[in-house]
Design a protein that fits this description.
Elements lengths: L14 E3 L5 E8 L5 E7 L4 H4 L1 E4 L1 E5 L3 E8 L6 E9 L2 E6 L2 E3 L10 E3 L12 H5 L2 E4 L33 H6 L1 H7 L3 E4 L3 E2 L10 E5 L6 H13 L3 E6 L9 H9 L18 E2 L2 E2 L18 H17 L4 E4 L7 H14 L4 E4 L16 E2 L2 H11 L5 H12 L4 H4 L3 E3 L8 H4 L4 H13 L3 E5 L27 H16 L2 H4 L1 E7 L5 E7 L3 E8 L5 E6 L6 E2 L12 E6 L3 E8 L2
Parallel strand pairs: 11-12, 11-22, 12-15, 15-18, 18-19, 19-20, 21-22
Antiparallel strand pairs: 1-2, 2-6, 3-4, 3-7, 5-6, 7-8, 7-10, 8-9, 13-14, 16-17, 23-24, 24-25, 25-29, 26-28, 27-29
Helix pairs in contact: 7-8, 9-10, 13-14
Length: 581
């Protein structure tokens, strides 16, 4: 065994309380280097009566490592443990103070999980596990009230520019709530709704006022109430990293400079406050002079923004916040933010915008979830022919091992949003590739999100082209694609195994882009078969039982001599399932 590859620490994603009775343990070993890992567990105060050996499962693999996992239910909410690792005739023991060839008597130098404290548990909103989100940019969704259109509003469906308007508003969303309900989504993520000079609203002037071009606070409250009546949750966008240069406190700084009482609300590097050769003399989002960055360590700023977060939860009854540019705001602020939001609504869902590994924010004291851009990047690369099945398996395995299971169950998985090119454009307008990616989205762990219009075939390159107006003329919609999305939403909502069940790749070959994977819980077992190639293929995998059926048609699918053979056209898929009880 390569001992240098062995890794475990008794904290974070490696040893954590999943619930009030269960501790999850993970161990890393070199890939294909170890036959089995066994957790030797017990209570350090009563080892003889609580000792229990647990065979760990190899739950994920990446390019270099295997990851082993076990769930332990200690009798007294305390756990003392050591790992016995075997490769052929070689056996070693992995302890808190190193690696040994023999196991010392308990419990000196064993790993410890001291106690499962209820107030330390990382609890995520249960409803987020069942959610299917739909992201809406209100300005581009539907114009329900032309009387509030901005000056110079263009005809619906025109070419999106960085600074043009088409008149979308909250009334337009209200007008189409039944359409969304019929589609099957049960959660909406709105990009910013508050007073702002731009079409995207990420430069906010008044954080407690709905932009008049969208409606007003009472209309938003009415919209949220109607959403709740239809079983639809609502998540708003919190832009707390920066504001608009029209934000009154920043205007005061522009006017009074270092004599402004608000000068410490921002990061002012020199006076006068200005932009020189494209570089502001104050910190901003990127180098955009019209988006000055908040000093969230300032108590006045913190109190102001936390009051905003609480206001919309309490007064409008929104169900969560998506946090813009979350990684550029200090951790102290987000810890206080979580406390305020969860006190206002313990069931609120907090999703940070972080584009890379986000474990720092996902340890129970800050966010519930993040926008999983590494997932979308990996999925789109695979289904665009950028990697083989083995590489895809490794990348997905590495993503699953980034976070504790409760985060994996509600991580915000998306294939498109208001920033990158449209999904259909990303796959070269090949609907077959798009469908494979969407099938994976809806049969993988995490909370799926659909960007408005992807379901009816909208195309578009990067911002602003990806922000086209929603197409409501059914003659111009791809209704076959719409029905496909609707079917996948219904399948996921019907079966808990597709929302919370275990995930495992069954077959992925080097040099080949076909994969077979499974999702299962105690009631239902799914297998998903994908031919991600331009050739007709028959995928085969051992199946011990003959009670399989097609999950979409109900047709029986019977293996031959213990081997399942699934013929697939190019870029085709099939979803099988069987009852376990």
């Amino acid at each position: 065994m390569l001992l240098e590859a062995l890794y475990h620490v008794p904290r974070d994603k490696w040893a954590y309380a999943y619930d009030a009775e269960t501790i999850h343990l993970r161990v890393r070993t070199k890939r294909d280097d170890v036959d089995c890992v066994v957790a030797l567990t017990g209570d350090k105060y009563d080892w003889d009566h609580t000792y229990y050996e647990i065979m760990m499962d190899k739950t994920a693999t990446d390019e270099m490592f295997d990851y082993w996992e076990a769930a332990v239910r200690p009798k007294y909410k305390r756990l003392c443990y050591v790992f016995r690792i075997s490769a052929g005739s070689e056996i070693i023991y992995m302890l808190d103070n190193g690696i040994r060839s023999e196991c010392p008597p308990p419990a000196g130098h064993y790993y410890e999980f001291p106690y499962i404290h209820g107030n330390d548990l990382f609890k995520v909103p249960e409803w987020a596990k069942d959610a299917v989100f739909y992201q809406i940019m209100v300005e581009r969704f539907a114009n329900g009230d032309p009387s509030n259109d901005p000056e110079g509003t263009e005809a619906w469906g025109g070419t999106p520019q960085l600074n043009n308007f088409f008149g979308g508003d909250l009334q337009g969303v209200l007008d189409h709530l039944e359409d969304l309900q019929d589609f099957g989504i049960n959660a909406i993520y709105f990009t910013p709704l508050f007073l702002s000079p731009s079409n995207h609203k990420y430069d906010i002037v008044d954080y407690k006022k709905v932009d008049p071009h969208f409606g007003d606070n009472l209309l938003l409250k009415q919209l949220v109430e109607q959403c709740h009546q239809k079983g639809i949750r609502v998540m708003l966008d919190a832009v707390f990293n920066h504001c608009s240069d029209k934000f009154p406190p920043f205007q005061d700084v522009l006017e009074k400079g270092e004599y402004s009482v608000y000068k410490d609300w921002f990061h002012i590097n020199s006076y006068p406050v200005q932009v020189i050769d494209g570089i502001p003399t104050y910190d901003t989002f990127g180098f955009y002079g019209d988006m000055p960055k908040f000093n969230t360590a300032n108590p006045e700023v913190k109190n102001y923004l936390l009051e905003v977060a609480e206001y919309w939860i309490k007064e409008i009854k929104v169900d969560g916040w998506r946090l813009d540019v979350a990684n550029e705001v200090d951790h102290h602020f987000w810890r206080d933010f979580r406390e305020v939001v969860k006190n206002a609504n313990p069931d609120a869902y907090i999703v940070g915008e972080v584009w890379s590994d986000s474990l720092t924010w996902l340890l129970g004291d800050q966010f519930d979830s993040v926008m999983n851009y590494p997932f979308s990047g990996t999925v789109l690369e695979f289904f665009n022919g950028g990697m083989d099945g083995t590489t895809f398996e490794h990348r997905i395995g590495a993503l699953l091992m980034r976070y504790p299971q409760q985060t994996n169950e509600v991580v915000f998985n998306l294939l498109g949003s208001h920033d990158p090119p449209r999904l259909l454009t990303c796959v070269g307008e090949d609907k077959r590739r798009l469908k494979l990616a969407v099938v994976f989205l809806f049969t993988f762990m995490g909370t799926p999100c659909i960007y408005y219009g992807d379901e009816i075939g909208l195309t578009g390159n990067e911002d602003p082209d990806c922000r086209k107006c929603m197409e409501w003329d059914k003659a111009k919609q791809d209704l076959e694609l719409y029905d496909f999305y609707r079917t996948m939403i219904a399948l996921r909502k019907e079966h808990k195994a597709l929302r919370e069940g275990r995930f495992r790749v069954l077959q992925a070959c080097e040099g080949d882009a076909c994969i077979v994977y499974e999702r299962n819980d105690d009631l239902l077992h799914f297998t998903i078969w994908m031919n991600n190639t331009n050739d007709v293929r028959t995928l085969s995998h051992p199946m011990e039982t003959d009670d399989w059926r097609d999950a979409l048609t109900g047709e029986d699918v019977v293996p031959e001599n213990g081997m399942m053979h699934i013929p697939l056209e190019p870029y085709d898929y099939r979803i099988l399932c069987r009852n376990l009880q």
